[in-house]
Amino acid sequence: MGGPSKASETYDFLLRLFSDSDLIPLGPFQKWAARFIAKRRTPKVAKHYEEIGGGSPIRYWSEYQSLKVCEILDKTNPETAPHKPYVAFRYAQPITENTLEQMMRDGVTRAVAFSQYPQFSYSTTGSSINELWRQTQIIDPNRTINWSVIDRWPKNAGLAKAFAQNIRDKLAEFPADKRNDINILFSAHSLPMEIINRGDSYPAEVAATVYAVMEELNFSNPYRLVWQSQVGPRPWLGGQTAKIVERLESQVEGIILVPIAFTSDHIETLHEIDIELMEDAKFPEKIKRAESLNGNPVFIEALAGLVHDHLKSGELYSKQLPLDCVLGGETATNVFKHPSEMFGNHSR
Questions:
Q1: Lowest mean pLDDT among 122-136, 152-166, 244-258, 325-339
Q2: Catalytic residue (one of 205, 216, 265, 291)
Q3: Which residue ranges does UniProt annotate as crossing the membrane (predicted)?
Q4: Which of 14, 15, 17, 100 is catalytic?
């Protein structure tokens, strides 16, 4: 998805985001509605980016993570070295077409599209893959780059360990006699029910990550999965993070919020949780947020391990991706029908 590195880039980011019918279906007036919504929301959202330091840190963390992963892969997978990292965002710079153009200039012939959404949704990972397909038709029509994809990894052991480590660190900030009674709220980005009702795998995969983390913690605390970042009047997946916090905060010893579907900090953590939710809380002293994964060494090793295993396996895409395309692609335009059209050797 990405995020504007500067507050001045907010309008372009929002326009691309609301223009994406895979993520936010707005019907036949999508383009007009996207311009209207982006223009209307830009002043408020840009102000939020100013309040977290002038822009989103997601590009910094994405470039850092990918660089460290490639450094590890050069040692673990010498047969495919050197490994070069590229970052491509769906709605912010560097956008997909710019990254693909750079890869073509660099003479890349083999690439792995590694989704940084651990849990698949057609509206996020699917949308990013669709955009890669569209831009490939324009920029690489001779299919000189042989692609494969890591399209989901919700139960990865290293991912669960990294989250559990950050939760333990935050639990340690509570008094020892209250620690086991602290409520853990795993907060993920919500999606419109219109997308969920198509059979999207996202809620199940987020729940799978939550369960894997709690297994790592030996189910030491009460926990729930909640959903944030709803936009507009249409029904979205709930219960909402802010409303669940409001119901619990006066009745429990403490709350730890865990951004379970995010692999680095950005506006949903740094502003929506750290500022907005905390300002609205009646007992903010009871509420803490677990650190985002960012540069967590356990997490970086997990990312490298995923690519290592992927390269060794020869797998082009997961067993689930064809079904995702059938269920999620009902209203998508200019997309492939089956992932075998995008991934694998198609050189001409």
A1: 325-339
A2: 265
A3: none
A4: 17
Instruction: Supply the Cα-derived Rg of the chain in whole angstroms.
Output: 20
Hey, what are 261's tokens?
A: 């579907």
Per the domain annotation, does 285 fall within a domain?
Answer: yes
86 is known as an active-site residue: no
247 an active-site residue? no
Residue 324 lies in a domain: no
Residue whose entry in the numeric block shows the structure tokens 């995702």: 324
Write out the residue range of the structural domain in which residue 219 sits.
Answer: 157-289
User: Which one of the listed residues 151, 205, 216, 268 is annotated catalytic?
Assistant: 268
63 is catalytic: no
Active site residue 272: yes
Q: Which of 49, 91, 117, 202 is catalytic?
A: 91
Task: List, for residues 71-128, the tens digit of each pLDDT value.
Answer: 999 999 999 999 999 999 999 999 999 999 999 999 999 999 999 999 999 999 999 9
CATH code, domain carrying 263: 3.40.50.1400
Active site annotation includes 253: no
Q: Which residue among 22, 151, 249, 272 is the active-site one?
A: 272
Residue tagged active-site, from 23, 191, 217, 306: 23
Domain-embedded: residue 98: no
Q: Which of 59, 152, 189, 266 is catalytic?
A: 189
Determine the distance from the C-alpha atom of residue 163 to the mean position of all C-alpha atoms in its chain, rounded to a whole number: 15
| Catalytic residue status for 103 | no
Annotated active-site residue 117? The verdict is no
In a domain, 253, yes or no: yes
pLDDT tens, 79-90? 999 999 999 999
Question: What is the count of structural domains for the chain?
Answer: 1
Known active-site residue 90: yes
Active site residue 17: yes
